[in-house]
Amino acid sequence: MRILVLNGPNLNLLGTREPSVYGTVTLADIETILRQRAAQLGAELDFRQSNHEGQLVDWIHEASGRWDTILLNAGAYTHTSIALRDAIAGVGVATIEVHLSNVMARESFRHHSMIAPVCRGLISGFGAQSYLLALEAAVNIKVV
Ligand code: DQA
Q1: Three-state DSSP class for 25?
Q2: Which one of 15, 55, 61, 93 is most buried, by most CB atoms within 10 A?
Q3: CATH architecture of the domain covering 2-140
Q4: Residue with CA at minimum distance from ligand 1 atom 7
């Protein structure tokens, strides 16, 4: 099982960014925790972050045939990006939408996800744990 984790804009600021919303865990902390769990589950994992929409699109394209599942926290692009939606739909790699915060409990502009309709599922609101839950889901997608 090969899992690609993609993080979008501003997630490199985790740890200092709006700690009342996102906590103090850093993206490096999340990567460490995920890698440990992936090793336990026997999954191969790559973990990337970009602030650039086109880079995320390129990584989604490259995932075709190389990665079984994408865990995608697209950050604010979740709510705006038709390009990401089309990329996910275009490559046909199972993609799980991930958010640290509960987007439905926040501003109304975060209630709509451009990518949700083309994702396999959505995990939101559990902080860093959202990534771990998504990893568990990714590993189990094929058995249930
Ligand atoms: C986020 C939620 C988005 O609305 C926001 O723009 C982010 C982070 C989350 O993980 O909670 O950048 O994706």
Answers
A1: coil
A2: 93
A3: 3-Layer(aba) Sandwich (3.40)
A4: 75
